[in-house]
Amino acid sequence: MFYRPENGHGLPHNPFNAIVTPRPIGWISTRAADGTNNLAPYSFFNAVAYEPPQVMFASTSAKDDQNGTKDSVANIAETGVFCVNVVSYALRDAMNASSAALGKEVDEFTTAGLETTACETIDCARVAAAPAALECRLTQIVTLPGAANKVVFGEVVGVHIDDACLRDGIFDVTTFQPLARLGYRDYSVVTELFSLSRPGE
């Protein structure tokens, strides 16, 4: 089949998210200017540069109690910082719980039953049980076409790694099995790896 998105796809559910898969999940923690912690997962997330290390995530909807965006973006615009928490298979239910549409005054760490710990370089909480976390300073927020599409870019200024996930100096993702977002309500988990050498190596 072929379809133009502007004309619709004619299927029971939008296939776009199922085509662009798997996608890593950026579990973004922020703190509002009034001190309220916020935690939310974003599947439009990735690393975008090595030197300096930089990441991005996109928010594509808005809440009634925020001005055309969601809590994460609003908090980052206020404070200039955020933390990316890596989602392990063991944290899948807590991640899902933190995706609920809640008022901006609600702390999702509490809602999801998660212990917090402080970041080192920024004023923000992070998920204590996460296998890794990236402390970030905002570089820019880009507004994309669409009602509430915003992309947040940040420079990684601090990196936390659970020592239990290091094997022979390698960050071994099979030790915690990261989640990936697929289409619809589907997820996947990384349990097996294989390697390929680049041509000429």
TrEMBL record:
This is Flavin reductase like domain protein. InterPro entries: Flavin_Rdtase-like_dom, Split_barrel_FMN-bd. It holds the Pfam family Flavin_Reduct. Residues 18-173 form the Flavin reductase like domain. GO terms for molecular function: FMN binding; oxidoreductase activity, acting on the CH-NH group of donors, NAD or NADP as acceptor. It comes from Phaeobacter italicus. PANTHER family: BLR2425 PROTEIN, FLAVIN REDUCTASE LIKE DOMAIN-CONTAINING PROTEIN. Gene3D superfamilies: Electron Transport, Fmn-binding Protein, Chain A (2.30.110.10). Coiled coil: none annotated.
